[in-house]
UniProtKB/TrEMBL annotation, chain B:
Residues 72-150 are annotated as: Disordered. This is Uncharacterized protein. The chain crosses the membrane at residues 49-69. It comes from the Bacteria. Keywords: Membrane, Transmembrane, Transmembrane helix. Residues 87-106, 120-138 have a biased composition (Low complexity).
Length: 194, 280
């Protein structure tokens, strides 16, 4: 695992080489992409887990985003100095827009039955994790970018393409509903005897 | 750096602890990396073939891609090969909450929290009223790269046009597997994948009242060459009348629609064509 940091640097360092290959029809630079994926997959899956709330959606999200970015890899290296940051921002945005799409679909069709085999949620006894589950994805993304990535308000605004004011209001809504949910849980537990 | 309101006391600590928990780890399945690289290659090959339009380049790309794929077979036929192994913690997870943040696993520390490669926030910049600059040599080279992309025009993509009813759209044969799609219910909207193999359009949204009201581009770009991956600078040079939106920018696309650009870290991450009469 100590190989992670150097691998990122290597990815950056190769940007110059990849740039020369831009426009080539031969997918040569995908070797770099393969190294990038190999080095960063565990971290990205973990981040996806925090964003989506479960390992399946995390894998789905990571794969979709990486395939898209990989298909334009030399372009991405050329455009952004930090492909890893770019991937993470794309994941946050893809997660938000995917949810929007699913919600639209659910207006006309029932949400498909959950698959027969659902593995146990490792966090099922964590009230905070359960409370996070109920946040709309943009609020959840703000919370993850803030407490997982440690980004500032302005950085989150730039990442998600929204105004700092929106970040602030989404964050305080999220915090309030997490608080309310945690408090509510305590209260219901207290009242169960009644 | 903007400072957060001091609402991250105990709850903030709890959140940090939770996000630092080892149980968040998801183990990649064996061969997951290969599957992803193969997927990226497949996407690119489709695009290259489309762009080259039957020239020898396309043949070369096909041969190159095909050869490579035979050595990278893993998960080629699956839409979603198992990228993640099931979390090993399912049976052994401690029921009590884990002790606080003392497990900085290697991959957790990789993002260098707060690494602000993010440039200063987008809307800080004063509205630039400079009209479209005459293109310089660097811009024309990047434009020519983008010009190879499939185009999402102001009225739609290929035979799919804004305002088209579900029946008309389905009749083009470009909508997702027809057996499994149904028309949007009354007063509702539904979203359909576009399956012409070009990966140009992610999906279209059809309203029962107004027909196709939205295209979400995958690889497709506007006629001006702006699409996912374009820089904010390229976006600004291509359109002088951008309107700021919550998630990015928009500009008019013909009389009845707008192009909407989702922008993140100075890069366009998604292009949409949205009808003005969209009720979705």
């Amino acid at each position: 695992m100590t190989a992670v940091a150097p691998a990122i640097l290597r990815g950056d360092g190769r940007a110059a080489t990849a740039r020369q290959e831009r426009g080539s029809a031969v997918p040569g630079d995908l070797t770099d992409f393969a190294e990038f994926v190999e080095a960063n997959l565990p971290g990205l899956l973990r981040y996806g887990h925090a964003l989506t709330g479960n390992p399946h959606d995390a894998a789905d999200l990571v794969q979709t985003v990486l395939e898209k970015i990989g298909s334009r890899w030399s372009h991405v290296l050329h455009k952004t100095g930090d492909p890893l940051a770019y991937v993470r921002r794309s994941m946050a945005n893809a997660h938000i827009s995917r949810w929007r799409r699913l919600r639209r679909e659910s207006l006309v069709a029932d949400i498909p039955e959950p698959s027969a085999f659902t593995p146990a949620d490792p966090f099922e006894h964590e009230p905070l994790w359960q409370a996070l589950r109920d946040l709309p994805p943009r609020q959840r993304a703000v919370i993850v970018l803030r407490y997982y990535e440690g980004l500032s308000e302005a950085e989150i605004a730039a990442s998600l393409g929204v105004s700092p004011g929106t970040v602030k209001s989404q964050a305080s809504k999220a915090i309030a509903s997490l608080r309310g949910k945690l408090r509510g849980d305590e209260e219901t537990e207290g009242r169960e005897a009644v | 750096m903007t400072h957060w309101e001091p609402d991250d006391d105990a709850l903030g600590d709890e959140l940090r602890r939770l996000f630092d928990d080892d149980r968040l780890d998801v183990r990649p399945a064996a061969g997951a990396g290969d599957a992803i690289v193969a997927g990226a290659r497949r996407r690119r090959r489709r695009r290259t073939v489309m762009a080259a339009g039957g020239g020898t380049l396309a043949v070369l790309a096909l041969v190159g891609g095909g050869l490579a794929l035979t050595t990278l077979r893993g998960g080629e036929d699956h839409r979603h090969p198992p990228v993640a192994a099931m979390p090993q913690t399912t049976t052994t997870s401690p029921v009590t909450s884990a002790p606080s943040a003392s497990s900085p696993s290697a991959e957790r520390s990789e993002p260098t929290p707060g690494s602000p490669q993010t440039p200063p926030s987008v809307e800080q910049q004063p509205p630039q009223s400079q009209p479209v600059r005459p293109s310089t040599s660097t811009e024309s080279t990047s434009a020519s790269v983008l010009a190879d992309r499939p185009v999402l025009g102001t009225d739609g993509y290929r035979q799919l046009a804004l305002g088209m009813s579900y029946q008309e759209a389905a009749a083009t044969g470009l909508l997702g597997p027809v057996e499994t799609t149904t028309a949007p219910a009354d007063n509702a909207c539904a979203t359909y994948a576009v399956t012409d193999g070009a990966n140009a359009i992610e999906d279209v949204t059809i309203s029962s009242a107004n027909g196709i009201v939205r295209f979400r581009a995958a690889d497709a770009a506007t006629p001006e060459g702006i699409g996912a991956g374009s820089s904010l600078d390229q976006l600004r040079s291509a359109y002088s009348d951008l309107t700021t939106e919550p998630s990015g920018y928009s500009t008019s696309a013909g009389a009845g629609a707008r192009y909407s650009f989702v922008v993140s870290t100075e890069t366009v991450t998604e292009l949409q064509l949205v009808a003005l009469n969209s009720d979705c």
